[in-house]
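Crash report, auto-generated. Payload:
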Amino acid sequence: MPDTALEPRAAYIEALEIMRTASDLGAASALLGWDQETYMPPAAAAARADQLSTLSAVTHSIVTSDRAVCLAEFFRDNLRHLNGELSDWEKRIARVFTRDVLRAIRLPETFVRRKTQVTALAQEAWKQARQQASFALFRDHLAQIIELAIEEAELRGYQDHRYNALLDLYEPGLTVGTLDPVFRRLEQATIEILRFVRDAGHVPDDSILKQHFPGQAQLAAAQSIIAQMGFDFSAGRVDLSAHPFCTSFAIADVRLTTRINERDLRSCLFGLIHEAGHGLYEQGMRSDLERTFARDGASMGIHESQSLFWENIIARSEEFWHWALPILRAYFPEQLSDVSPQAMYAAINRVEPSHYRIESDEVTYNLHIILRYRLEKAMLEGTLTADDIPHVWNALTEELLGLTVHNDAQGCLQDIHWSFGGIGYFPSYTLGKLYAAMLRSALLRAMPDAPDHVRRGDFSPIRQWLREVVHQWGRTMEPSELISAATGQPLSEEPFVAYVWEKVKRVYGQE
Amino acid sequence: MPDTALEPRAAYIEALEIMRTASDLGAASALLGWDQETYMPPAAAAARADQLSTLSAVTHSIVTSDRAVCLAEFFRDNLRHLNGELSDWEKRIARVFTRDVLRAIRLPETFVRRKTQVTALAQEAWKQARQQASFALFRDHLAQIIELAIEEAELRGYQDHRYNALLDLYEPGLTVGTLDPVFRRLEQATIEILRFVRDAGHVPDDSILKQHFPGQAQLAAAQSIIAQMGFDFSAGRVDLSAHPFCTSFAIADVRLTTRINERDLRSCLFGLIHEAGHGLYEQGMRSDLERTFARDGASMGIHESQSLFWENIIARSEEFWHWALPILRAYFPEQLSDVSPQAMYAAINRVEPSHYRIESDEVTYNLHIILRYRLEKAMLEGTLTADDIPHVWNALTEELLGLTVHNDAQGCLQDIHWSFGGIGYFPSYTLGKLYAAMLRSALLRAMPDAPDHVRRGDFSPIRQWLREVVHQWGRTMEPSELISAATGQPLSEEPFVAYVWEKVKRVYGQE
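Recovered output after restart:
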């Protein structure tokens, strides 16, 4: 029973206390996770799994305590009627609290435990299956995961389409109804762009990127570039890990990781710029979001828009290389002696369909997402079973990318996401690209000389603008509200399509 | 009310569950602490303090929950009567659980909060005071800390002497009645040894230690030596920090830190051997102590005995340098070209009174501890006030070490311990030295050729023996039980005094 006798300010202060405890435990979990990927000795893996699972259980019990639920129900029922008792900002934070608590009690503990068990086994099986390129090893696990996803959607509730329940986990408020037409138009435009690229009949030379670049120099160069972007090293740091990521334990404690490939200039550099884009978001939040549930990205897609904004919009622009090339040349004088900004721009913007999502360029990447999106919707509709997946995957790869899949390791086993139960996650990647391009258009309207700033390496006006329209808000706005306020329009593929056309025309000539 | 209706095995399993949760939270706290000293960006300090304090509050609430107390009271009242329901080993673990839970509820929360506040301010004040060599800045804080210590002793309860309540926190079961005569005889013997050293009329040359030794080589050499000692790098690692320490998050996750002084070979090498001694203890515990309260050293003194055993007994022996010198020479060929094991042995065993505890040699170190022990006992007796401390400190330094204190920074402000409320802690350091020497005597009886193993760098029989008699037990034995079982005698200064006489006679000649 919601407690209608609560005093609003006292309730808010109590909610803040619960958020502080849960956030601090969450920070400890995040540190355990960061350490696991960076410094943890190998023999500690089993103990670390226990520690992470205990932290998560204790946090869950705090967020779903009777008192937390009582406060959340009070806010759910009364927040819109409160006037004067709480500021607008406090109401926004209370709304995030309410959302998280009520979401946390939606799934029965038996279901959560079952999902944890199934996905733990599925992840192990997936590793084996991918290594041996044998879908058979993963099939039964995937079948269970599809069943669980259907069950989870039913438990969480949805309108119109079951998949909406899962989309909402990563992109609050987004529905199939909104996404379908956007993805349809994006697919169509992408296919036209690819036809243009193919017809251009020439392929930019990217051999300059594939020389030998010593690791220490790569790391130093990339760090100096993200420092110039504005990543604050007094409130963050960079370490190495097998898979790059960004995590944060506080606004003043943001950790990035990167990896180095001495035979490819892109891996460390663009990887670290990408993570620093996430990092600037985390460092740029309003300080009074600290230790609340609102200290996080508005959504996966919005978070990804920040990393992609810096990685693609900024660092894959020609202007950027007018500034960055002399800097990199100081680290790699021989390798980069004869390279012009134009040649670098062409090399890093080569478009080429690949079997692998993570090796894809800006243009073909979205086709990988659209493929997965179609499969996931069908899984949730119950019209696609685990058995169907390999051949449907392969047929779609042929249709969308024009590539033949030779084995399931380069096909439906390439991604880890389904094995951890992350159905609904993939669209975030493309949303990130679309949001980033929408933000680019808005920036160019608000600051027409932004490209000149980039050419001089003066990123602070751009970073300030992003902070203003995106970073500071954390989760206090839903993604659709945030993106409309920042860009003046709702989710659209148009700015992205225009941006990509502009790029491929410059790189592949004949306007 | 203790629940006498509990079923012993069910109660034990429930206690294990509570210990697992609390241990995992404790591991997360320890990681937050490790990270703070090694990699944390500076701006994160305030957020980290919040996180540590939340983790500690949540852990405390689990350990002092009604159910935990109920189980502890059941074990307290019934453990000795249980036969067959629990194994002897399980009873030992249940005893540690009982002890910790009942200890945790002894202090009222208001007292704990007050102590936290007072010591937080006192630590800041102490830093200022030491920097400015001004006791006046610390005086009021110290007065409050002495009051708190008296109050805490009364709350915890004791027999015979109030100080016993505090000693028991670090060295369970130890009393002033046991310690007084041991320290008296130790003081007497130390003064005789110092007279012998002074009369010898010569001072070993330690200039070989004070050449330039590049940092990376120092670290590599020290790591190769602790690997040979048996520190398992697959279940541990080494990082740098301002103050060296050892911490562990699991038996399979033991972290050491060290620091490097490029103008002194001792700092990194002996520091890391010391921490590795702690680390071998942590890595050597029985695996079924994992995630119980018994996975820790038997006491501060026993833990310190393990670090000092390796640092002093082993690595400050002449035999060690027969093996280690060629290894170090590979890293420092020029610096160590003309050095013999004998010269190294003399250089690292020079005896010289110092104002500073942490700069002291094996012989004079204990006089610093005896000085603090005398002061702390008098504080608890109420016969020594904060105002008295500087002049009493200085008089005792003159009496015991023959040194004049020129300012309080080299006198009573030199140690951090009182500022964090750690009255009762200092004796552990000397206990570590005495236990280490007792273990040395026992080892030589059990394994007369141990010095030959050291001379060959074959440390595994010695490590195995320590594991057998000390490491594996964790906290399942109280220190007095452990040391008696391991050495066949109760706490005694005799082995230490004999060991030191032997050393100074070798180093300072004429035997």
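Post-recovery validation: The radius of gyration of chain A is 23 Å.
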